[in-house]
Amino acid sequence: DPEETLKPRAPVVAVMGHVDHGKTSLLDALRKTNVTKGEAGGITQHIGAYQITAKDKSKITVLDTPGHAAFTEMRQRGANVTDIVILVVAADDGIMPQTIEAINHAKAANTPIIVAINKIDKPEANAQKIRERLLEHEVIVEAMSGDVQDVEVSATKGTGLDKLVDAINLQAELLELKARPDRAAEATVIEAQLDKGRGPVATVLVTRGTLKRGDTFVVGTESGRVRALIDDNGKQVKEAGPSTPVEVLGLGGVPDAGDQMTVVENEQRAREVAEFRQAKATESRTALAPT
Ligand code: GTP
Ligand code: NA
Ligand code: MG
């Protein structure tokens, strides 16, 4: 994209870590709502996507990833739209299998990590031990002479949240994140489902351009037209710019997480692109089929 039309965009942050280390609680605390209480058994069943506004009015887009092993693939796909990984490690529990998995995903995707050492309020919390153990996985925090920022936090007590936001903003500045808002949108599906009343609904993250009500699009191999856009507060909006998560109504079917949504000029073009993608999908299936 030409340099002059590029505008700064909010960082997209994925919160990753072992089950029950406090990912959702940390996001709740940052957002000051209460998502964990509404979850079945306190286990995140899907990837939530929303934007928080810091005290200095800067925006941060956050993806809450499920802590369940079955969601590994979705999480891998999630890492591709992610600018920064917040690695949540419970200070009383330490480095666990899914902590290591998250480190490996971040490294494979070349995504910078910020370590949030959580549950620092617990008497058995040992932040120094976590810093030392992270060395074994080649995550070298600043206190250990590395360049990975680490912040001690308590999601439940609200400790260290401002420092975490500062760390995110500092990392985001280094990345010089930019996008063109004044072009046809491209977005990535974060999650999608069939809603009884509303039909197929997808939560997408706009990666380029501005997605507008009435836009014709292709998502995966399906075409559609934006009937409504709903923001992360449940409010209808007319458009969504780069780094904005938004719910889209008006899909022809339920896409997969990770599918690309591309806005096109008209329905005929949408059909052409959809057919092209279908043919390509069939081709790769045929190529993979055993002979
Ligand atoms: P999954 O999505 O299931 O992987 O869990 P999660 O990582 O989102 O953890 P969640 O936010 O559901 O928190 C798990 C438990 O830890 C809950 O009982 C929280 O109340 C508790 N917890 C989270 N953060 C803190 C903290 O800073 N201090 C203490 N003492 N408890 C915490
Ligand atoms: Na949990
Ligand atoms: Mg959770």
Task: Explain the overall architecture.
With 291 residues, the chain is an alpha+beta fold. It is built from 6 helices and 17 strands. The chain has helices spanning 23-31, 72-79, 97-108, 127-135, 161-175, 267-288; strands spanning 7-8, 12-17, 48-53, 59-64, 84-90, 113-118, 149-152, 178-179, 186-195, 199-208, 211-212, 216-219, 222-230, 236-237, 239-240, 245-251, 260-264. It has a 6-stranded mixed β-sheet with strand order 3-4-2-5-6-7. Strands 9-10-16-13-12-17 form a 6-stranded antiparallel barrel. The protein has a two-stranded antiparallel sheet with strand order 1-8. The longest helix has 22 residues, at 267-288. The protein starts with 6 loop residues before the first strand and ends with a helix. The model is unreliable at 67-71 (pLDDT under 50). Residues 23-24, 44, 67 line the site of magnesium ion (MG). Belongs to the TRAFAC class translation factor GTPase superfamily. Classic translation factor GTPase family. IF-2 subfamily. It is found in: Cytoplasm. This is Translation initiation factor IF-2. Residues 8-178 form the Tr-type G domain.
Task: For the structure shown, list the relevant keywords.
291 residues, alpha+beta, 6-stranded antiparallel barrel, 17 strands, 31% strand, binds guanosine-5'-triphosphate, binds sodium ion, binds magnesium ion, Translation initiation factor IF-2
